[in-house]
């Protein structure tokens, strides 16, 4: 401590030296001392240091002054409050000094101090007192000052302070406003501009009364319209307020917009530009309130998009440039004194109009058809714009239109939706020729920026409408080649041109390019040789696609090979092999070279007899390298699958053991690709794969077959199925081995389903067909069903019985001769009174699975046995029997369906029989069901009136559109819940069914999201009271529907009503919070502007979730739940922060500083931001 203060007093002494170098070094040392956390100053030292630094601000040497200003930052946080006030006082006084240099340095000093103050959210008293002190001095400086430069500095500092600490100055807001408003009429434009900035920051944090005063003042002044210059300023100010606080200005738009429209028609270019900019900010920031005015805004923008009074566009078809030059000469001579091009401000109006259209297109998804009718042709016509900046904005607006067309494809591709006539896609399709014509001219422009815009446009167009350019390829290819060959073009332009070419090639048929291959190959080959790695890597991608174009393998079969690839093979091979051999190149280029060479060998290998062996050896080298092995495995898979039967025999003895060793590695992608590669090698090269190689692979398989990774298990199973076909002899070692044990364990896993289950069934069928000793039909059957019959213990999970039954059915289908005996045995098992429930369960499920594929009508007692099982005491046996009946009926509809329908009409067991009917409707082919549809409908509708709720529920799931709305109003909770689940499934799988119903369904849906007090009851459990919410499942179903609608019917939703309910969900039960956090993340990417308007209301519940503490004596699950909630809430916060202007919201920035100051939250926040999976969160599916 003593040494520190001694050191500092030493420095202070040096600071008084007459030598500027001494002063500089001493200040520098003081700076580094102050930055240390350990430094503590006593009162005396504090006073001396502060006094010295303030004195150095007036130093004659500029560098010393600069350093002294920098010292202020760390100093503020180290000294006591009254010293900070001394600093601020002195700086404020210096601001008013006569010396310009001192004024400048003091204003920098004030900004430094304000920047160092702790944020408003930390509630520090220091920040509040400093800001109050500065504010008083600044307002007087702004109001009274004659000197403009002082005013400008003061306004700048005021804006800075309002932005950082606005919340602390609430009491001063009225006085700040009254000193700022008069400055809007200042004779100096710079003063007005800074005043507008300060007002923009003021409205973010000011109270409602101040806001109303400001808006009223603006409206009155705009109404008076004294002179043009101030009117421009007021319009600019309105736009700035709407940009900063759009959610607040919304209610005044009715008064503001007519005024702005009026000024748009005044002949003053600058005013027009500001008016259109104001419209843009209204459209982006107040989407809901601006809605009625959008048509007006669009028509104004379309009018001013072509506003170019000083230029004549008539001479388009002739040689543009020559004409322009002549015209300019004549103009120049004739009108020397009247007009010069520098005075022409009309381009600013056009640019503002293009940007405003961009905003309209991006925010009003539901008006797409209208945009394609009016906006699209107008934008395409303006691609010829002469001002480059404006042209870029026109292109950007069109890109936004295309991007808006893209997300809707999920339902546009739906055949039912296509019948609605003019969908946006069909309208776009009809405008493609016009777009291509406009782009064709621009692709040969000198300007790099213009050409880049064209490439982006083409890329996006092809992504929205794959194949749209097939007729126009001849027009576009020369334009692309022009940019690839252009010596002057920048590397970015080449990369864009290559990327565009790639996307066009991928999305169009190969024959469309055949005429252009001679022109395309040389520039692409020279790009592969380019020294810049990014160009090389794009060019390799294009080359890979080009190989598929010059020899598409799918046309090989019908012998219609009309195009001869031979002239180009050598060039493509040479340029790729050079990149493949190079060891010292960029990782990305290495990988792309491997993939590209794989494609060349796959499509052209038969034409490269001499080069092939050497290239395969390079592949073998790359396979041994950890960095390139994954890409090489993919390339080998491609080559092995080629219909040209490329000779891989020379490398197989080395390659297969290496591949087998990859199955041990931890990298999951590598395992999956390796299994795929081994599978295809077995299929196509079985003669070259020796038993020793197979054994090496088999040794690695057991650990891969497990429930911990179903996808890897599935690939391993399909490899085994292939092996059973190609090397049946190798399967002999399975009978005692580990693999079978793993297989049986997997069959009993509750997670086995989908692809893995299908692969398992295929394998059993392939295995039983090999007739391997010890693995015959009966052996396998015993292994599968043994545990159930040995009666040791029931299997832990019902799903296991279903999987075993499916495997039994697969074996039985493969060995039809064994079928009848086994079916008879199962029927006996169900009849036998000594059978346990689990034996009956397995027998019934197996009968169902076998009957699904094999007609069992030859078994006379089957129907009675199953109907008897309906009266079993075990619920599981009953439901298995109803499933079995439905499934057997699918195997022979004419025999069983009438029987089921008759039983439903006459019997008491309707609930079970209706489940059988549901199984039939779900699995039978449409053609088979046709004759019975009417009788099924009438039966179901009759049962809708049934008393028993369960029966009604089942009926509901079977009938969707006919009586759907009634069920949403049913008094019974469960019926409403099932109705919502059904609706969700329809919204997910067949959105076209419900799109038209949405207007009537949504009010009911939103109604179900509310918490109902009357459904919450208290249950006493011994000494504890426990609340139970019966409405929770219903609310959950409603929120799930809302989530699904975001994907399939976004354009039919009113986002603001939707957000109201999301907001309620954020304060609901755990399950519902989790769903609404997911929704927020989706909404942030789908409609950011709407979310931004509601941001302040959304942040509060998120903050509440993140700061909730679990009671200390809670159970472990409670802590885990709370952690999970926090993580989910943080994901939502990270998603919200991707909206460009989110952090400007005072509440959001406050929350952010709260997160960063709390260690636990900061850790979660960082890990989510790092975790790239937060991007995949978007595509998570909750249905």
Automatic annotation (TrEMBL):
Residue ranges constituting the TATA-binding protein interacting (TIP20) domain according to the UniProt record: 993-1155
Keywords attached to this entry: Repeat, Ubl conjugation pathway
Repeat in keyword set: yes
Coiled coil: none
Domain of life: Eukaryota
InterPro entries (UniProt xref): ARM-like, ARM-type_fold, CAND1/CAND2, TATA-bd_TIP120
GO biological process, one term: SCF complex assembly
Pfam families the UniProt entry points to: HEAT_EZ, TIP120, TPR_CAND1
Region entry Disordered, spans: 315-343
PANTHER family cross-referenced by the UniProt entry: TIP120
UniProt similarity note: Belongs to the CAND family.
Protein's name according to its UniProt entry: Cullin-associated and neddylation-dissociated 1
Lineage: Eukaryota, Metazoa, Chordata, Craniata, Vertebrata
């Amino acid at each position: 401590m003593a040494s520190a203060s001694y050191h500092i007093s030493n420095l202070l002494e040096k600071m008084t030296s007459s030598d500027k170098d001494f002063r500089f070094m001493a200040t520098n040392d003081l700076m580094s001392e102050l930055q240390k956390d350990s430094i503590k100053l006593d009162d005396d030292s504090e006073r001396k240091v502060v006094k010295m630094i303030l004195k150095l601000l007036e130093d004659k040497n500029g560098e010393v002054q600069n350093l002294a200003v920098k010292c202020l930052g760390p100093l503020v946080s180290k000294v006591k409050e009254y010293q900070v006030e001394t600093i601020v006082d002195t700086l404020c006084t210096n601001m008013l000094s006569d010396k310009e240099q001192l004024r400048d340095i003091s204003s920098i000093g004030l900004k430094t101090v304000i920047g160092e103050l702790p944020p408003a959210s930390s509630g520090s008293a220091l920040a509040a007192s400093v800001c109050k002190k500065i504010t008083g001095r600044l307002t007087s400086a702004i109001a009274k000052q004659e000197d403009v430069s002082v005013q400008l500095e003061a306004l700048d500092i005021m804006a800075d302070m309002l932005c950082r600490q606005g919340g602390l100055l609430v009491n001063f807001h009225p006085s700040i406003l009254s000193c700022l408003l008069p400055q809007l009429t200042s004779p100096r434009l710079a003063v007005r501009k800074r005043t507008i900035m300060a007002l923009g920051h003021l409205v973010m944090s000011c109270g409602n009364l101040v806001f109303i005063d400001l808006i009223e003042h603006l409206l009155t002044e705009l109404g008076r319209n004294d002179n043009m210059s101030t009117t421009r300023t007021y319009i600019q100010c309105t736009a700035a307020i709407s940009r900063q606080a759009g959610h607040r200005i919304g209610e005044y738009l009715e008064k503001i917009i007519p005024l702005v429209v009026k000024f748009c028609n005044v002949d003053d270019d600058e005013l027009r530009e500001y008016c259109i900019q104001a419209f843009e900010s209204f459209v982006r920031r107040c989407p809901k309130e601006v809605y009625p005015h959008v048509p007006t805004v669009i028509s104004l923008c379309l009018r001013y998009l072509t506003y170019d009074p000083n230029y004549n566009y008539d001479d388009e078809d002739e040689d543009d440039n020559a004409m322009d030059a002549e015209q300019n000469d004549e103009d120049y001579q004739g009108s020397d004194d009247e007009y010069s091009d520098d005075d022409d401000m009309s381009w600013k109006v056009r640019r503002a109009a293009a940007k405003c259209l961009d905003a309209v297109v991006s925010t009003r998804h539901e008006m797409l058809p209208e945009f394609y009718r009016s906006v699209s042709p107008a934008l395409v016509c303006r691609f010829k714009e002469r001002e480059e900046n404006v042209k870029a904005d026109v292109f950007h607006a069109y890109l936004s239109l295309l991007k808006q067309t893209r997300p809707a494809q999920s339902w546009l591709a739906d055949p039912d939706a296509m019948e609605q006539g003019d969908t946006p896609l069909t309208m776009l399709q009809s405008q493609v020729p016009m777009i291509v014509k406009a782009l064709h001219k621009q692709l040969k422009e000198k300007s790099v920026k213009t050409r880049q815009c064209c490439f982006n446009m083409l890329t996006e167009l092809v992504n929205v409408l794959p194949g749209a350019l097939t007729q126009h390829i001849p027009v576009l290819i020369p334009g692309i080649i022009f940019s690839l060959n252009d010596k002057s073009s920048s590397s970015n332009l080449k990369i864009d041109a290559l990327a565009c070419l790639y996307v066009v090639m991928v999305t169009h048929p190969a024959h469309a390019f055949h005429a252009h291959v001679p022109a395309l190959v040389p520039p692409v080959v020279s790009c592969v040789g380019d020294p810049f790695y990014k160009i090389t890597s794009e060019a390799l991608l294009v080359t890979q696609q080009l190989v598929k174009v010059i020899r598409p393998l799918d046309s090989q079969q019908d012998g219609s090979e009309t195009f001869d690839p031979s002239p180009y093979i050598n060039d493509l091979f040479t340029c790729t092999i050079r990149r493949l051999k190079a060891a010292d190149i960029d990782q990305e280029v290495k990988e792309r070279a491997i993939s590209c060479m794989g494609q060349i060998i796959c499509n052209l290998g038969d034409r490269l007899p001499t080069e092939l062996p050497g290239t395969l050896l390079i592949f073998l080298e790359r396979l041994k390298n950890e960095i390139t092995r994954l890409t090489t495995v993919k390339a080998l898979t491609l080559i092995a699958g080629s219909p040209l039967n490329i000779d891989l025999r020379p490398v197989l003895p080395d390659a297969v053991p290496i591949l087998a060793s990859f199955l041990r590695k931890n990298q999951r992608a590598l395992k999956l690709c390796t299994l795929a590669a081994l599978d295809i090698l077995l299929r196509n090269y079985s003669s070259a794969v020796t038993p020793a190689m197979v054994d090496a692979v088999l040794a690695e398989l057991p650990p891969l077959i497990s429930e911990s990774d179903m996808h890897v298990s599935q690939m391993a199973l399909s490899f085994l199925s292939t092996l059973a076909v190609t090397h049946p002899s190798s399967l002999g070692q399975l009978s005692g081995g580990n693999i079978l044990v793993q297989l049986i364990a997997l069959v009993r896993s509750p997670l086995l389903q989908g692809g893995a289950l299908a692969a398992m069934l295929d394998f059993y069928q392939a295995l039983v067909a090999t007739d391997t000793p010890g693995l015959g039909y009966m052996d396998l059957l015993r292994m599968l069903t043994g545990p159930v019959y040995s009666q040791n213990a029931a299997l832990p999970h019902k799903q296991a019985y279903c999987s075993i039954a499916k495997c039994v059915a697969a074996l039985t289908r493969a060995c039809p001769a064994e079928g009848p005996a086994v079916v008879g045995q199962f029927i006996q098992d169900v009849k036998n009174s000594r059978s346990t429930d689990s034996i009956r369960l397995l027998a019934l499920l197996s009968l169902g699975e076998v009957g699904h594929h094999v007609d069992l009508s030859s078994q006379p007692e089957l129907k009675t046995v199953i109907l008897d099982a309906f009266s079993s005491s075990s619920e599981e046996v009953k439901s298995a029997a109803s499933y079995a009946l439905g499934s057997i009926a699918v195997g022979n509809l004419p025999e069983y369906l009438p029987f089921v329908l008759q039983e439903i009409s006459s019997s008491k067991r309707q609930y079970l029989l209706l489940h059988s009917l549901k199984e039939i409707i779900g699995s039978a082919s449409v053609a088979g069901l046709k004759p019975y549809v009417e009788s099924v409908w009438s039966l179901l509708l009759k049962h809708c009136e049934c008393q028993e709720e369960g029966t009604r529920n089942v009926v509901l799931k079977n009938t969707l559109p006919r009586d759907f709305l009634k069920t949403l109003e049913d008094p019974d909770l469960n019926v409403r819940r099932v109705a919502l689940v059904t609706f969700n499934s329809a919204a997910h799988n067949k959105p076209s069914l419900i799109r038209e119903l949405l207007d009537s369904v949504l009010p009911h849906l939103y109604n179900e999201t509310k918490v109902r007090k009357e459904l919450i009851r208290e249950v006493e459990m011994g000494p504890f009271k426990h609340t139970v919410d019966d409405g929770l499942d219903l609310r959950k179903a409603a929120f799930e529907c809302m989530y699904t609608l975001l994907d399939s019917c976004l354009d039919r939703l009113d986002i603001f009503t939707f957000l109201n309910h999301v907001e309620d969900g954020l304060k609901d039960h755990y399950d519902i919070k989790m769903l609404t956090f997911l929704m927020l993340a989706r909404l942030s990417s789908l409609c950011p502007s709407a979310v931004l308007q509601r941001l302040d209301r959304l942040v509060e519940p998120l903050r509440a979730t993140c700061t909730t503490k679990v009671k200390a004596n809670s159970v472990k699950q409670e802590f885990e739940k709370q952690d999970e909630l926090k993580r989910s809430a943080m994901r939502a916060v990270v998603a919200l922060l991707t909206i460009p202007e989110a952090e400007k919201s005072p509440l959001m920035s406050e929350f952010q500083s709260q997160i960063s100051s709390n260690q636990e939250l900061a850790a979660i926040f960082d890990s989510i931001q790092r975790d790239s999976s937060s991007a995949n969160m978007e595509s998570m599916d909750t249905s």
